[in-house]
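Q: What does the predicted 3D structure of Chorismate-utilising enzyme C-terminal domain-containing protein look like?
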Amino acid sequence: MSGRFDEAIRNPRCVWLQAGDGGPQVAWLEPDDVSLTYDAARREVTRHASGRAEVVGTDVFAVLEAELRSGSPADRWYGYFGYAARPDLPARGDDLLPDAVWMRPSRIERLPMPAADIPRPAAPAAFEPEPTPQWYAEAFATVQEHLHAGNSYEVNLTYRGSVASGLPPAEAFARLCAINPAPYAAYVQHDVPGARAFVLSSSPERYARLDRDGTLEAKPIKGTTPRGATPEQDEAAAAQLATEPRFRSENLMIVDLLRHDLSQVCEVGSVEVPKLMAVESYASVHQLVSTVRGTLREEIGVLGALRALFPAGSMTGAPKLRTMQIIDAVEGMPRGAYSGALGWISGDGRADLGVIIRTLTTNGDGEYRLGTGGGITVQSEVDDEYTESRWKAERLLRALAP
């Protein structure tokens, strides 16, 4: 670890982002700096500063928007919206972490993440499939009933796993970045009694970026396959991903949903899809990625834009509201930070956030939680989907290995 990163994590409230403005950056809060947390079950936004906590609202998007209006264009907020952050949508509040954390630090520095010393096997261990458990098969069957009834076109079915580890969160994050580098890697630490959250993300997916000229862009991922063991196998895996009808149909449905979401806040005729189903390759997987872009209307602020897209269509399915109702009934547990969005928002109207996938979370109790899953369509096979959900989580678990 570098000295500056060590200095930052000694503060109870800090953050490190790969996708910082101008490059990776670390930021931390002095005691009188402000942070906001949200409890979806209570519908309470709490403002933390100078050791005091005060409930200041019921909608974290609205409270954060008010903070931006009353602050300076130079202000920078860092944090996350968990899956249940929008109070007008059906989602269970987290029972372990705040459903949103946003921090306004007074200390910000450019700082690449240092490499971690981690035990590495000579080659990645072979992934061993296991039988699909009954609880997953039952959830999958219920989703298929909804799909065949026409209640949804695609449902992102997920579940939460956990693993005990004594590894400190910052060290676990450094190992995760070394094992699974990603463009939206991020570390959030909010070590405040009653509102503790440690979020360790190695996400490859852009939720939304809003530029100074009003360009609003999302890059949904739908379609994932493991990298091949040899160059030939790797090339074949990428080619299969690009042509597989199931993956292409999943991606197209989410692109349509994102086009609809952007059209609610963008100039008429400005929404476009400059890239449709491009294969992007990362350390462990190939992904099918599309780009959806538009020009934000002048009367819509940055929080209005982020709210309109939330949660990411790739993490719900389509249509969004009805599919979230299905998810709430079928999954039976909160998603927490997983499936939300993490990054930075500026007082000058810019923002850049990633989707919270490939992410570990903890409240410091010695248990790390992770969400995993995938998009289900009528073409999906239950055993394939469960196996895919497991290998998506494999590298997260490797970061916690002894």
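A (community wiki): The structure tokens above were generated from the sequence. The longest helix spans residues 245-263. The chain is about 30% helix and 35% strand.
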